[in-house]
Amino acid sequence: MKRILSANFGRPRVAAIFSLVLLFTAGVSSTSMAAAGGVDAVLVMDSSGSMAKNDPGKLRVPAARMFMSLLGGEDRIGLISFSDNGYPVLHLTTPATDTNARILASADKVSSKGVYTNLYAALSKGIEMLEREGKEGQERMLVLMSDGRMDVGNSDEDWTLTQKLQGELLQAARDKGIKVYTIAFTEASDIELLKQVAKETGALFKLARSDQDLHDVFSAIFESAKDPDMLPIEGGEFMVDGSIEEVTIVASKEREDVRIYLQSPDGRKLGAENADDKLKWFLSHHFDMITLSKPEQGAWKLLFTGGRNRAYIVTNMTLNYNPQQPSLIAGEGMVLESWLEQDGKLLDKEAVLTNTRFQMEIQDPNGATTRFDLFDRGETGDKKPADGVYANTLSYENAGSYQIRIIAKGETFQRQKTVHFEIAPVPAGVAKPDREEQAEPEPEPEPDKAAAEPAAGPEVSLEEDSEQQAQPEKKKDVNLGLVAAVFMGINLLLGAIGFAVWWILRKRKKTDNADADDEAS
Fold it and tell me: Across the chain, what does the average pLDDT equal?
């Protein structure tokens, strides 16, 4: 059952701090990957000489290995290295006990010795591998990473190949249903071209400003492509319930010399040295990847981590959302909805949902976040009250890259979905949609007020609270022309008054002098 979430937090008006419209890329789909059963993914990695400077520690290798490790038994992974041409390193292979070592070793074969950066050949070889080796029913995707621009040693040929890439090659990818996720490794990359490739194939573009960002970038691409179920991590803590079969944690480090530990619900401190059949621990310079099989129920905690952590889970109780809408632009509104499923069926048990709170946390391109509640009250975009589907209406105006975390928190469980999306600018010559009723972020509750509320219920929405608190007046835009005109008018008026005073005093002086002359005569 799918419905539309509405994030109207009470009185639908967008807070001035946020003006953005949610645009979900076509690559962000909570059901498409699951329906297909798996994905055929090909990493297309730049091996030009400039990578030795931009990625001296070859951190793209552990980041790529992390991505490979996150894929499941229903997926297949391939790898192509490119410089002057594209060179297959790993043909599409299913992760398994007897293939994992070969899959991970393939990432080490990507060098930084190439002379040129042939983006056309890179994309062409990736499409060719998927076309030749792709399996029926699998989603198809490429992950293209480059730190440069089209360069084959001849500027005319560069232009010709770029035109062919933007034309026939992109059309071929679209015709074959291939999503091309792109990574610009530096701002010197051809960012506009990489953005175009991702957008036109319904995928995601990410900029890795440094090699240390790569594991976050690959995590975002994995989340967009596979839409995994996750656990929210706050203050390093995450809650494991009995329905979770496996947890895979990607824990970031602030420095290379930091050692990350994991504290179990019974207080045990676990590290990489404790790895066994139930605890797998992959170490790297800027992140650790930890997998727990059949984890103990209760509160787990990451120790000495630098934040930006993720916990992916295998479970039969999942969090879903709707819509997956790729065409929103700045100024348009949308209704978003979310619900829980157990064993593939809508979870609408009152005993569970009464104590469950649904929220969204939106992160803007600057890293600022705002949280919103979702409601099941037959309002704020929700179609039917008390049916287990929670909704709210969103409408924002600024273009850019955003992330949204959809979170459900119950008494004994927590779930999260992370969605990465773009806000498209309003096309030139098109008027912005009218901003009518839009969402406000929910204010943080006062401590005593939170304590007074029943544990089962969410915080009071703005709609409910608006009768008790006066709404702040809307700030008006400043008209600089009007300000200048008023300023000039005031100056002219003061000048006129000054002249009048001077003229009156001068006239009075003349009159006094004339009277004195008359008295003297």
Answer: 80
